[in-house]
Amino acid sequence: MNRLTLILGGARSGKSRFAMEHGKTSGVSKYYIATAQALDAEMIRRIKEHRRQRPSDWTTIEEPLNLSEALQSVQGKADIAVIDCLTLWLSNLLIKTNGDEKKMEAEIDRFIRVATRLDLSVVAVSNEVGLGIVPADPMSRLFRDMAGILHQRFAEACHEVYWMTAGIAVKIKGDRNADIANRVG
Q: pLDDT tens across 164-183, in order?
């Protein structure tokens, strides 16, 4: 069954932990699609920590750019795929396309088309980057704007959207009664 969930929030708000908890009861076959690249010491450390925290019953795919293909590759193999995270994927796209908005939007649309057509649950984690100050340089402003576009388009397709703050998940889209019925039933 196709079910799309978006988990938004700031840095260290508990998004990844919540996504993994969200996926614990979502079937037997679980995939984790990681979009980070180990380009510096800090990211190497963060990736190692995420790997360490991930339960052993999850299969991991590390794919920084070809998210649609990675998602398609789990069709028929997975009950759920957690994508962590969309904003890292977007920053990888920004660099790959040299800030070409049309190419980035085409990739965003392709990802959403793929996600909505698969027979599995997709839980995507993403950082909300548009709440702070206006970035000083054009590339950072483009990233912020494209993240807003990605979030709006994906959230529209999603069945559920959560906002994370201080480790607390607040459901901002989805039928609360259906959510409670699914947990009880």
A: 999 999 999 997 655 433 44
Task: Please determine, for residue 184, whether its predicted confidence score (pLDDT) is greater than 60.
Answer: no
Assess whether 50 carries a catalytic annotation.
yes
Going from N- to C-terminal start, the domains of the chain cover 7-184
Helix (H) or strand (E) holding 62: strand 58-62
CA atoms within 13 A on the CB side of 84: 24
Range of weakest confidence among 31-40, 42-51, 119-128: 42-51
Helix (H) or strand (E) holding 125: strand 121-127
CB neighbour burial string for 20-32, b if at least 16 within 10 angstroms, e if fewer: bebbeebeebbbb
Annotated active-site residue in 22, 50, 151, 159: 50
CATH topology for the 7-184 domain? Rossmann fold (3.40.50)
pTM, 2 dp: 0.90
